Amino acid sequence: xxxxxxxxxxxxxxxxxxxxxxxxxxxxxxxxxxxxxxxxxxxxxxxxxxxxxxxxxxxxxxxxxxxxxxxxxxxxxxxxxxxxxxxxxxxxxxxxxxxx
Length: 100
Known about the structure:
By secondary structure, the protein is mostly beta strands. The chain has one helix at residues 32-35, and strands at residues 2-6, 12-18, 23-29, 46-48, 60-67.
């Protein structure tokens, strides 16, 4: 499972997790060429990470989440590239209560 987070200036933070053992690894990548393997991918896509370096050789990851530069989370099932307004209710993923 992998998560993608964009930072300003073309840096991307990648979090890799293997829930069966509880192992987790986080790396920051600045190289635009290495990040191209994640462009135009959707959640649940499998991506081979050979281009990230020797530690990624022979591994594939499934994109399970992420957020954009402003911190808006990815949501499974929304099939547009731009932002949309979703009607969420209590208990749903990404729901934040604005009034208390």
